[in-house]
Specification:
70 residues; mainly beta; three-stranded antiparallel beta sheet; 3 strands
């Protein structure tokens, strides 16, 4: 089940909600003020890619382009 982030239009409270993937509509209300004026908030995520390059032997730089290690 995905987690969505929302923002209340009345009090500006930001909150997350675990939403099931069903045909039922979930009624949202702000946990702080109870308002139903809720908008889906823009969220970001990160992905860590595994590099085939060996790690820097000094431990102070990126695996690719290190003048000391590569």
């Amino acid at each position: 089940m995905p987690i969505y982030s929302y923002k209340c239009s009345d009090c500006e409270e930001k909150f997350d909600k675990l939403v099931g993937v069903t045909s039922e509509t979930v009624e949202l209300k702000c946990p702080k003020c109870g308002s139903k004026k809720i908008k889906k908030a823009l969220t970001t995520f990160s992905v860590q890619a595994k590099s085939e390059e060996p790690a820097c032997s000094t431990g102070t730089c990126q695996p690719v382009g290190c003048p000391t290690c590569h």
